[in-house]
Design brief:
Pfam families: NIPSNAP. The protein has helices at 15-31, 59-69, 73-85; strands spanning 2-10, 35-40, 49-56, 88-96. It has 110 residues and is α+β, with helices and mostly antiparallel strands. The two termini are 22 Å apart.
């Protein structure tokens, strides 16, 4: 499994538009076989930083999602939202592999 971490710098005056954009991508990631863990909007502290986390079974599955998303009309409409309203100032993308308790041979209670 690979988890994509996205850290956004957003226009603090356009948080509603960014949140609408995020809600669209949750469904779209899942449409292509991913598991979205949500968008995390500013609450305390910096008012212009938002996060998103989603996972795919493998980096290959993620790359397939990326390729297919560039051809998907719903994904292109979501991208066009930001191109029109410019609520995302910048973003960075990192990939992580999760470690779970079971990975150490420790069994979880049923």
């Amino acid at each position: 499994m690979v988890t994509c971490y996205l850290r956004y710098v957003v226009d603090p005056h356009k948080l509603d538009a960014f949140e609408a954009y995020g809600r669209l991508w949750i469904r779209l990631v899942e449409k292509f076989g991913g598991k979205h863990h949500g968008y995390f909007m500013p609450s305390e502290g910096a008012s212009n930083i938002a996060l998103a986390l989603f996972s795919f079974p493998s980096l290959t599955a993620y790359e397939d999602y990326r390729k297919r998303s560039f051809e998907d009309p719903e994904c292109q409409a979501a991208i066009a939202m930001n191109e029109k309203d410019r609520f995302i100032i910048s973003y960075e993308r990192s990939f992580f592999r999760p470690v779970f308790e079971d990975d150490l041979g420790v069994k979880r209670a049923p």
